[in-house]
Amino acid sequence: MDLNAQYFSLEEICYATQSPSQTIVELINQGIVEPEGSGPETWIFDTQMITVTKKACRLHRDLDIDWSGIALAISLIEELDQLRDENQRLRKRLERFLDQ
């Protein structure tokens, strides 16, 4: 756990995302978010999980995608973001190499 990060309880993530606790539990059951803690009373969520929860709820609401489909979509979006970041880092390294 990062001591500098901000963490939220189940109640706080429900409020921050305007989602009922049943929705948050479904996201956890689908592996979309993975809070620390052994159960609802002790779960803690970081700010990244709030972002993912909002994105998942928006996909569910706007596109009527089921939760298992959302789990796959979120996974693919995260992989795409990682690949874009890696591509950008490699481009910068290549530019430095070519400038020499």
How is this structure best summarized?
With 100 residues, the protein is mainly alpha-helical. It has helices spanning 10-17, 21-29, 47-63, 67-99, and strands at residues 7-8, 45-46. It has a two-stranded antiparallel sheet.
Beta strand count: 2
Mean pLDDT equals: 92
Q: What structural class should be given to the helix and strand makeup?
A: mainly alpha
* Element order: H for helix, E for strand: EHHEHH
Backbone shape? globular
Strand content: under 5%
- Count structural domains: 1
Q: Which consecutive residue ranges, at least 5 long each, have pLDDT under 50? A: none
Question: Strand sequence of the main sheet, in spatial order?
Answer: 1-2
What does this structure look like?
By secondary structure, the chain is mainly alpha-helical. It has 4 helices and 2 strands. Helices cover 67% and strands 4% of the residues. A two-stranded antiparallel sheet has the order 1-2.
Structural topology:
Layout: E1 7-8, H1 10-17, H2 21-29, E2 45-46, H3 47-63, H4 67-99
Antiparallel strand pairs: 1-2
Helix pairs in contact: 3-4
Keywords:
100 residues, mainly alpha, Multidrug-efflux Transporter Regulator, Chain: A, Domain 2, two-stranded antiparallel sheet, 2 strands, 4% strand
